[in-house]
Design a protein that fits this description.
about 120 residues, alpha/beta, 4-stranded mixed beta sheet, two-stranded antiparallel sheet, 4 helices, about 15% strand, globular, disordered C terminus
């Protein structure tokens, strides 16, 4: 998790540019988006990771105060275009500006296990 110094650094850098960026790329999503993802029951995402609450709440503040074209994040092992110009990324490579999928790859490529043993289909239906 980021340190308080890193949170402050992010705030100060955003302040310098009047909280206006083209793209935001983070590992996880704002807590409001995590909650929204948890309501999509076919994904199996739970909204109970208290260890990430400080970070995801910080990202809520960034979301509310920053003008951005698009926000990309990973963490949830799904590829999904969401609300508020946000996209979850897992096994797709996208053009940053257009959001179009350039390539979909098998994230378990090179594994010695059979595909059925290594791939959780709940997240890709």
């Amino acid at each position: 998790m980021p340190s308080e110094e890193e949170y402050n650094n992010a705030r100060e850098n955003l302040k310098k540019i009047n909280f206006h960026v083209d793209y935001i790329i983070t590992h996880t999503a704002p807590s409001e988006t995590v909650y929204y993802l948890s309501t999509l029951h076919n994904l199996g995402i739970k909204n109970n990771c208290t260890e990430e609450l400080v970070l995801t709440t910080f990202l809520d503040d960034i979301q509310r105060n920053t003008l951005y074209k698009h926000w990309y994040f990973g963490h949830f092992h799904t590829d999904l275009d969401l609300w508020r110009n946000q996209t979850a990324i897992f096994s797709s490579i996208r053009d940053l500006k257009t959001g179009k999928i350039i390539k979909i790859w098998d994230p378990y490529e090179g594994s010695t296990k059979k595909r059925e043993e290594r791939y959780d289909y709940r997240f890709h239906q």
